[in-house]
Each structure stands twice: as structure tokens, then as C-alpha cells.
Write a structure and sequence with these properties.
The structure holds 2 protein chains of 2 kinds. Chain A is an alpha+beta fold. Chain A contains 2 helices and 4 strands, in the order βαββαβ. Chain A is globular, with a radius of gyration of 11 Å. Classes of the chains: A alpha+beta, B alpha/beta. Chains A and B meet through α1 and α2 of A and α2 and α10 of B.
Chain lengths: ~70, ~270
């Protein structure tokens, strides 16, 4: 399978409840919570598009968009 | 994202607490359904009462939000009248095994083609953190301030003993396996039971000092192991996950149809 290329992290700030699951389990520490306890992608260049954040998000608030999608 | 197509976006953000594992089950379920390629119109989701049962409101299928513990009874009614539909029955641990315990074991015994998803957070969340039949000995709950002395059911053993033809356990942490297990359960022709261990940081976690949602997810990782692993032999307290039972037995609706045909012939 070809290596996935990141287009961007689509974050729905209205749906994010700031549980921090995606932040903690990101293997590359791409995500962080901001001052409003909402997730932001602070190091998108490190993202390997494993999509674990997207799969684990209980609020369906994050989507990893790739060039291949 | 596949989710958008199968959810009722107008009801989002959902009512579940931050870090509630039920959302992760919803997330896994829409992916499983997308993989199978089912049409929304061919799916009926029947739920009872409780935090977990709210899932039916968020999914854009035919949905029935019924009475406490009786989701399986309603689902059997739907399935008997329209055997062509795919039935999904999400239930909480208390809903499925306490209030609806008898419905649960008899649905297993009948082997009617549907998928029961037991979202096990080990507590009654919606009503304020009372202990459930899956809380287990020694746990704390609002109704067990000096620890719970009831032993817990093992959903997998119980469903197996009652005769379910597909029995599996997954967790909200192991999201790479969850959609696959749900997919196999839905595809299985017969009664499928999938127990999904989910964290309830608000009640179970807080009462039992299990920390944040993240800590509880870490616990799911460290306290479970794949079926038949070496780790289980070394540490029997680990909880096994995976597919425990998968067998073929006559399905209830098909058998009933045969009875109808025999009766019509008069012999």
C-alpha cells in the first residue's frame, strides 16, 4: 500500500469535548488541547496518517484527510 | 469520513460525557456497516434504556428506542415480521443482563439472526452510578459505598452457555479490531453477541479511582489480552478478547418459515 499523504486534520470544535484520548494515544504526538480544551493539530508535519485519533474519538470530532481519500 | 452518512448530525454533539466509550462503539459501528455496504433502509436498530441505548437516536437507520431491558423482545418482533432486515441491538450491561437478563438468554437460545452489542461500562451511568451485574466484587458505586459484594457475570461465558452462535469480546481501546469484530458479528447468520468493554470515567472511573478517560483506556490495554495468549497463562486475571464462538446452527426465522410451509400443506 502506498504511503498515505496528509491533506489535513479536519477538527469539529463544536463536537470535541476535550477528553484527550486522541492526544494521549497519538503515536507521533501531533495533537494537543488548546486553552479551550479543544483538540488542535500542532505538529501536522509529524503525522503518519495512522488515523488512530479518528478511530478512537468518542465524539467523531476529528478526521484525518489524506491525498488518497 | 464514513460516519457522516450513517449518523443524524442534527443531534450532535451527543449527550455522552467526555471520554465515554460509547461514542467509540458508535464510531466502530458505522465503519463496520460501511465495510459491509448495508443500506440504511435495510437496518433496524432497537435499543432499551440507558446511556448506551441513546446510540439508537444518533444513527440514521430505522430506530426503535424501547423499554428497559426489552430491546431484544422488540427486535425479535421486528425480525419475525421482516426477516430480510438487519437487526442491531445495542444494550448496556445492566439493560442486557439485569433488567433484560431473561430476554437475553432466551434470545441466545433461539439463535435468531441479529446482533446484540453489550456496551459494558460496569455501571448504571444514566441513573447516577449504581452498581450493575457486571460491576464485580470489590468495586465501588453510589449504591455500594462500602464496596460491592456481588460477583459479576461473564457475558461471554453466559452467552456461550445460553447457546449464542457468535460470541466475541472487544474493547473501546482496541479500535483496530473493533469494526472487524462487529462486521463479522453482523455478517454471521444467527444470534451474535459482542461485548464491548467501554470506559465510564464519570461514574465507574471516579468511584473506583481509575483516573481520567485516558487512564481508563490505558487500563483496557493492560488488563486484556488476545484469546489463547501466553500472557493469559502467566497472568490469569487478564481478560481475553477476540472471537470465542462461531458456529452454524439452524436460524430461527428460517425454521419458522419451514413450519409455516409444513402447516400450509397440512402435514
Amino acid at each position: 500500500m502506498a504511503k498515505l499523504k496528509l491533506k489535513g486534520h479536519l477538527i469539529n470544535r463544536d463536537w470535541c469535548k476535550g477528553c484527550g484520548i486522541c492526544v494521549h494515544f497519538c503515536p507521533r504526538k501531533v495533537l494537543e488541547l488548546d486553552e479551550f480544551d479543544k483538540v488542535v493539530a500542532v505538529r501536522p508535519q509529524d503525522c503518519v496518517c495512522c488515523k488512530l485519533c479518528e478511530l478512537r474519538c468518542p465524539d467523531l470530532a476529528i478526521e484525518v484527510q489524506t491525498e488518497q481519500d | 469520513m464514513p460516519a457522516r452518512e450513517y449518523i443524524r448530525e442534527r443531534f450532535f454533539p451527543h449527550i455522552w460525557c467526555p471520554g465515554c466509550g460509547h461514542g467509540i462503539v458508535l464510531n466502530g459501528l458505522v465503519r463496520a456497516i460501511e465495510n459491509i455496504g448495508l443500506k440504511k433502509n435495510d437496518i433496524v436498530m432497537v435499543s432499551g434504556i440507558g446511556c448506551s441505548s441513546r446510540i439508537a437516536g444518533y444513527m440514521d437507520f430505522h430506530t426503535l428506542h424501547t423499554i428497559h431491558g426489552r430491546a431484544l423482545a422488540f427486535a425479535i418482533g421486528v425480525k419475525m415480521s421482516r426477516p430480510d432486515l438487519t437487526l442491531l441491538v445495542p444494550m448496556g450491561d445492566g439493560d442486557a443482563l439485569s433488567i433484560g437478563g431473561n430476554h437475553f438468554i432466551h434470545a441466545c437460545r433461539r439463535n435468531i439472526d441479529m446482533t446484540a452489542i453489550v456496551m459494558n461500562n460496569r455501571v448504571y451511568g444514566m441513573t447516577g452510578g449504581q452498581y450493575s451485574p457486571l460491576s464485580g466484587y470489590g468495586t465501588m458505586a453510589t449504591t455500594a459505598p462500602y464496596t460491592n459484594i456481588d460477583q459479576a457475570f461473564d457475558v461471554v461465558s453466559m452467552a456461550t452457555a445460553a447457546g449464542a452462535t457468535f460470541v466475541a469480546r472487544a474493547t473501546a481501546y482496541h479500535v483496530q479490531q473493533l469494526p472487524g469484530i462487529l462486521e463479522e458479528a453482523i455478517r454471521h447468520k444467527g444470534f451474535s453477541v459482542v461485548e464491548v468493554m467501554t470506559p465510564c470515567p464519570t461514574y465507574f472511573g471516579r468511584k473506583n479511582k481509575e483516573g481520567s478517560a485516558v487512564d481508563m483506556m490505558e487500563n483496557l490495554k493492560t488488563r486484556t489480552t488476545p484469546i489463547g495468549s501466553k500472557a493469559k497463562q502467566e497472568n490469569p486475571s487478564l481478560i481475553e478478547r477476540g472471537i470465542f464462538v462461531k458456529k452454524e446452527l439452524p436460524e430461527y426465522c428460517a425454521e419458522y418459515q419451514r413450519i409455516v410451509e409444513r402447516a400450509m400443506k397440512g402435514k
